[in-house]
Write a structure and sequence with these properties.
Layout (H helix, E strand, L loop, with lengths): L1 H13 L5 H8 L3 H13 L5 E4 L4 E4 L19 H15 L8 H15 L6 H7 L15 H10 L1 E9 L4 E15 L2 E8 L4 E6 L3 E10 L5 H8 L12 E7 L1 H7 L9 E4 L5 E7 L3 H8 L5 E5 L1 H17 L2
Antiparallel strand pairs: 1-2, 3-4, 3-7, 4-5, 5-6, 8-10, 8-11, 9-10
Helix pairs in contact: 4-5
Amino acid sequence: MNERIYQIDDLLNSHKVISFNELMTRLEVSRATLKRDLAFMKDRLNAPIVFNRELGGYQFDRSQKLVGQQYELPGLWFKAEEIHALLTMQHLLSHLDSGGLLGPHIKPLLARLTGILGTGNNAVEEVQRRIKFENVGFREFHLDHFQSIGSALLRRKRLFIRYHARGKDDLTEREVSPQRLVYYRNNWYLDAWCHLRNDIRNFSLDAIRNAEILETASADVSDAQLNEVLGTGYGIFTGRAIQWATLIFSKERARWVSAERWHAKQQSKVLEDGRYELRVPFNDSRELVLDILRHGAQVEVIAPASLRETIKNEVALLARLYQ
């Protein structure tokens, strides 16, 4: 089929107009096959093919302004980044509430994604059967207040929330000015100005027990200020006091970690003995500690001393469990 698609493209490009019968003759295919090929190019590949009744043939509409994906012939297959992006979008859309207001919009998007996945000689059913999409560590939760939070965010209104801080197992009531929603590691977070703490905070949406939209106008925080507090350190947690963690990975583990990106501003180098040194900025060690521990004895914290002590204490507690 791919070969015929390229032939049709070549014929349409080399002729101002070409009739259906001439296409059949050139391609040596049946009427039904040619109809399917033309429909595939128009519906799946977004080809600007039109029938010119005045001239009695098919042509490319060069004046047509395409919305969304542009026309492009199928390659051998997708790149790794492309198939990951397509399957991620399909996964996210499939888990949205199709029975709500988004339903009529979700179905066409899913149909379009399905069409793209099935491009070429690979049926979409075969793609889905052969490629497994796993979300390891995915937390299932019901974000009951997502709509209210999103509405307040866009309407620039403050929120009154009851928030469960799981670390301290503490429930607090606070007024916040929502700034932006962030999807990070399979969870949603709200970046906001907290009027209780008089500072920027981020809140895990599944820990918000109640959210009430207030009529008070939201206080605005610049993107630069948000990024200064929330984007400088490692992970999702906030803080201004930036420290740098220096980690040394074993020669064996370096083969994997050297290809990973832990932070946009990370610094790294391969040592003379083959070990790998990684330096990342952080302001709250909680998430960094978890990522360090998953490498076990294959990584050593060199600095700062406080982070090294935290790992040392955690390892001692682990050892005590297995004595």
